[in-house]
Automatic annotation (TrEMBL):
Protein name in UniProt: U1 small nuclear ribonucleoprotein, putative
Localization of this protein: Nucleus
Short name of any one Pfam family annotated for the protein: RRM_1
Annotated segments matching region Disordered: 181-298
Classification via InterPro entries: Nucleotide-bd_a/b_plait_sf (IPR012677), RBD_domain_sf (IPR035979), RRM_dom (IPR000504), snRNP70_RRM (IPR034143), U1_U11-U12_snRNP_70-35kDa (IPR051183), U1snRNP70_N (IPR022023)
Keyword Metal-binding listed: no
GO CC terms, sorted: precatalytic spliceosome; U1 snRNP; U2-type prespliceosome
Keyword Ribonucleoprotein recorded: yes
Highest rank taxon of the organism: Eukaryota
Compositional bias of kind Basic and acidic residues: 224-275, 287-298
SMART domains: RRM (SM00360)
RRM domain residues: 98-175
Length: 298
């Protein structure tokens, strides 16, 4: 109805187009027919398969080197354990039940400073800071008292004392008082093995790997455990970083608040000073006026 009355050249614009050409019919491929394998059976190999070529991944090589070094270390350590006889050592002197062990010492601490800190508990007989071959402190010392009562008092109250910005550890001498005691360098001690940090493997795991070097299942399990342990450590590090960031942001906010408070205080103080100056000026003007009026009256 809307096209009624339109000229032909306008109606030509509204004429319907011809329909699109249809797509060609899809030609389906005929699937190949299944054929038997009987013709190829005679081509199969009858000999056993060749042996696999030995391959060592970088991780396996690293573990092998670690096992070898650990085995050598344990063998040397076992030899030193057999030679370790503190009761027969001529270099060790004094009464073991009156001797105090001091650990975690600063390398700058001297015997004089150590004596000043521990002579408050009783009379000291001898102080010995253990040094290496070059004469440098190894971070621990022994203090011998004249009686065991003073040693016990120092043992109870001296632990955690801060000397040269380091908190020391106090313990009794265990080499000659505890049967079967071994120092940390020989696999004993009261703490973790030396060098055992967050990234260090468990010593018991490495010893088990040495005892069963051909147990691939255990090795794979240990590898998986190491991976899980590394992932867990990464998560803990991320959490620690997030906590540190939150603490830094909170500190920045506190600093900004303190700066704003200081600015307001300075403004208030500055305003008070200005008021005082104005008051003093106005008083001086009034005084001058009074003086002029008196002069005129005279």
């Amino acid at each position: 109805m809307a096209a009624i009355g339109m000229p032909p050249h306008i109606l030509a614009l509204f004429a319907a187009r011809k329909p699109l050409d249809p797509f060609p019919a899809f030609k389906s491929k005929h699937p190949r027919r299944y054929i038997g394998l009987s013709d190829y059976v005679k081509k199969f190999e009858l000999t056993p398969p060749p042996a696999p070529i030995p391959f060592e991944s970088p991780r396996q090589r690293k573990q092998r080197i670690k096992r070898t070094k650990l085995l050598q270390h344990l063998q040397q350590q076992q030899q030193l354990v057999e030679l370790y006889k503190p009761l027969q050592d001529k270099n060790i002197q004094g009464d073991p039940f009156c001797t105090l062990f001091i650990g975690k010492l600063s390398y700058d601490t001297t015997e004089k400073k150590l004596k000043r800190e521990f002579e408050v508990y009783g009379q000291i007989k001898r102080i010995k800071i253990i040094t290496n071959k070059e004469g440098k402190s190894r971070g621990y010392a022994f203090i011998e008292y004249f009686n065991d009562k003073d040693m016990k008092e120092a043992y109870k109250k001296g632990d955690g004392t801060k000397i040269d910005n380091k908190r020391i550890l106090v313990d009794v001498e265990r080499a000659r008082t505890v049967p079967g005691w071994l120092p940390r360098r020989l696999g004993g001690g009261r703490g973790p093995p030396r060098g055992a940090g967050k990234n260090q493997p468990d010593l018991s795991t490495l010893v088990a790997q040495i005892n069963n070097p051909n147990n691939n299942n255990n090795n794979n399990n240990n590898i998986n455990k190491d991976k899980e342990r590394d992932k867990e450590k990464d998560r803990e590090r991320e959490k620690e970083r997030d906590r540190d960031r939150d603490r830094d942001r909170e500190r920045e906010r506190e600093r900004d608040r303190d700066r704003d408070r200081d600015r307001h205080r300075d403004r208030d103080r500055g305003g008070d000073r200005g008021d005082r100056r104005r008051r003093s000026r106005s008083r001086s003007r009034e005084k001058r006026r009074d003086d002029r009026d008196r002069d005129r009256r005279r």
